[in-house]
Write a structure and sequence with these properties.
The chain contains ten helices and three strands. It is elongated and about 95 Å long. It starts with a strand and ends in a 14-residue tail after the last helix. The chain is mainly alpha-helical. Helix content is about 65%, strand content about 5%.
Length: about 240
């Protein structure tokens, strides 16, 4: 059984931010290890399977005609005639299934972008004040030659609430404005990146939707590339 996994890290040469199809057990194991997220979209799976089955049916039917003792297939040009009919039916079926697939993926991308674009983040006045005070204290320490205040903040990030991180994100720029020391600026940037991970989680549905292929007709294109009945097709290896 296969499953789709959205990789959040590079694994065995496979790039992060990509969707890979693999054994379901392996996919769930990688998800538990924090290396990816299993993507479960049954409607897309149904359409992909439909395309694969249609192509496989074409292959099998063609093979059956070649090996059949039925005299109808022995008539000169008969197999070519029936093959052309099969092609027309296959390409029409795949085109429709692929249209439905592309429509669903496009809708998922639009919905994910709409959700993130209109997401409301409530930060209380208490959180805003606490963030302002925290940054003021860090700036004061830096001005008196103690840049280690940023290291302390970095250590605290994993223990902060999401709203505290969001509030600090709005204040952290003041640190770089208050100091031209490149060491301080570099630490402030690292701190910003660490805090910004809270928003990366919000972007995950967008990243997954964007990683989904916009079409699912790969089985047909592979057929057109390799099958002898598509010898005259522009992508066929038999034409080159």
């Amino acid at each position: 059984m296969k499953a789709k996994l959205f990789l959040t890290t590079n694994i065995d040469g496979l790039p992060s931010q990509s969707i890979q199809e693999m054994d379901a057990a392996q996919a769930h194991q990688l998800e538990q290890s924090g290396s990816g997220i299993v993507v479960d979209v049954p409607s897309l799976d149904v359409l992909e399977n439909g395309i694969s089955k249609a192509v496989e049916k074409y292959r099998n039917k063609y093979h059956e005609m070649l090996s059949s003792p039925d005299p109808v297939y022995k008539v000169e040009g008969a197999i070519d005639y029936y093959t052309q009919q099969m092609k027309t039916e296959l390409e029409a079926e795949v085109s429709e299934l692929n249209r439905q697939y592309s429509e669903i993926v496009s809708g998922m991308k639009d919905a994910a972008m709409r959700d993130i674009a209109n997401k409301k983040r409530y930060i209380s006045e208490d959180e805003r004040k606490a963030a302002t005070d925290t940054v003021n204290e860090a700036i004061t320490s830096i001005k008196f030659g103690s840049p280690g205040a940023l290291d302390v903040l970095m250590e605290q990030v994993p223990y902060m609430s999401d709203t505290r991180k969001l509030a600090l994100l709005q204040e952290i720029g003041r640190i770089t404005e208050a100091s031209s020391d490149q060491q301080v600026v570099a630490k402030a940037r690292r701190l910003y990146d660490k805090l910004d991970e809270v928003r990366s989680g919000e972007l995950l549905p967008v990243k997954i939707a964007q990683a989904l292929p916009s079409s699912a007709d790969t089985p047909l294109r592979q057929l057109q590339m390799t099958h002898p009945t598509y010898k005259g097709h522009k992508n066929s290896i038999h034409s080159k």
